[in-house]
Amino acid sequence: MQGIFWLLRAFLRLETERLRQRGARLQVIGRRDRLAKSVLREIDKTECATATGRRLHLRVAIDYSSRDAITRAAAIATAGGLNNGLPSPDSLGPLLAQALIAGSGDVDLLIRTGGEKRLSDFLLWESAYAELIFADTMWPDFDERDLESALDEFSCRERRFGGIPAIPLSSASEFMGSIP
């Protein structure tokens, strides 16, 4: 485990300035209480240094579980007496953000690396309307070209947030006319 912590600290030290210069905001979500203090210090430094980034909000999940986050959010709601201890969908979102880390919010694009084709307890609530891209490349090898490819694909998608696509009236009429 120490090797992973060393690698994460090294990445943060090397990439913080580059992220800042490019307008990226880095946010680490997950169970921080189980990370080494030296890793937490580097995460805090990077998050502070990139906090004003507006071009890209990059979330890195470390020791993250949606089930755990939802459970913690429900516990917060119960302790706060919301709606007799039962949060509404509108109140649960902010509680989840609080349980994860302040201000995490919804996900626009979720890239799953390593050839997996599932979310695996990963940002379930926040990804309700996310566009999903599945890459065969393993995370350590996922590079700038892979990210550009994912962003190009994302930019071509029609984001409907659960709605139906707009159908021109003539197409709708043609569709309705074809129903016996």
What does it look like?
- Helix content is 45%, strand content 12%.
- It is built from six helices and four strands.
- Strands 1-2 form a two-stranded parallel sheet.
How would you describe the shape?
A: globular
The separation of the N and C termini measures: 64 Å
**Order of neighbouring strands in the sheet with most strands:** 1-2
Number of strands: 4
User: Cα-atom Rg, whole angstroms?
Assistant: 20 Å
SSE-based structural type: alpha/beta
| Unreliable residue stretches | 175-180
The H/E string reads HEHEHHEEHH
Report the sheet-strand fraction: 5-15%
Mean of residue pLDDT values = 80
Main beta-sheet annotation: 2 strands, parallel
What is the count of DSSP helices, taking H or I runs of 4+ residues? 6
- Percent helix, as a range, is 40-55%
Provide key terms for this protein.
180 residues; alpha/beta; two-stranded parallel ribbon; 6 helices; 4 strands; disordered C terminus
Concise summary:
This protein is α/β, with parallel strands linked by helices and 180 residues long.
Note the topology:
Layout: H1 2-21, E1 24-30, H2 37-49, E2 56-62, H3 66-80, H4 89-100, E3 109-112, E4 131-134, H5 144-155, H6 169-177
Parallel strand pairs: 1-2, 3-4
Helix pairs in contact: 1-2, 3-4
